[in-house]
Amino acid sequence: MGTPLESREAQAEAVVERLHEEYPDSAISLRYSNRLELLVAVVLSAQCTDERVNEKTKELFEKYQSAADYAEADEEQLAEDIYGITFHNNKAGYLKNAGQIMVEEYDGEVPDSMSGLTDLPGVGRKTANVVLQHGHDIVEGIVVDTHVQRLSRRLGITEAETPPKIEEDLMPVVPEDEWQQFTHLLIDHGRAVCTARNPSCDECILADICPSAKMDSDVDLASGEAW
């Protein structure tokens, strides 16, 4: 197996440095033009691919252009408008109710605080972090999606198992000025090389420092299971 660096801090810094070289244009893949569109896109992206979300939001964003539009929408029609998105019925309810809260409590604007965002239906800390980072230029945490969860464990940067605990564990070891980009880099690498079921360890630029590299490791540290 690869040999991780002596400290988690050194491991995280090496991972970030190498992935920056490999993915110099790493960025959020959801398409949006304002804070409301970003919020809606991220809510829709839960357990759904960004590609599918981008397909659906092309027309959605033309039809619904304000928080009031979502607040006043017929929920069944809204669900139909996002049909094809995972859990579209539930998410239609989230968007309508979130629109109502934004109209009633925030003058139709997207909240700019973690507490304000997580009070919206369908918005957890991960979603709130994305909106804060890309909508308000506020970086106060690390977005832990499935790729970040998998890769940070495989690479030996954390042994925590749940997204909240992983974020808490990563923040002291990932350079603060890289918190936002750390997520995008791991997402890009997770999609291209370090996939969930069959990672291409023989092509990985991190294999020599990855304790899960399957060339000579028996265990995937992301799952704790044998390869």
From TrEMBL:
InterPro entries per the UniProt record, alphabetical: DNA_glycosylase (IPR011257), Endonuclease3_FeS-loop_motif (IPR003651), HhH-GPD_domain (IPR003265), HhH_base_excis_C (IPR023170), HhH_motif (IPR000445), Nth (IPR005759)
Cofactor note: Binds 1 [4Fe-4S] cluster.
Domain of life: Archaea
UniProt keyword Transmembrane present: no
UniProt keyword terms in alphabetical order: 4Fe-4S, DNA damage, DNA repair, DNA-binding, Endonuclease, Glycosidase, Hydrolase, Iron, Iron-sulfur, Lyase, Metal-binding, Nuclease
Molecular-function GO terms, alphabetical: 4 iron, 4 sulfur cluster binding; class I DNA-(apurinic or apyrimidinic site) endonuclease activity; DNA binding; G/T mismatch-specific thymine-DNA glycosylase activity; metal ion binding
Family named by the database record: Belongs to the Nth/MutY family.
Name of the protein this chain belongs to: Endonuclease III
Organism annotation: Halomicrobium zhouii
Record lineage: Archaea, Methanobacteriati, Methanobacteriota, Stenosarchaea group, Halobacteria
Gene for this chain: nth
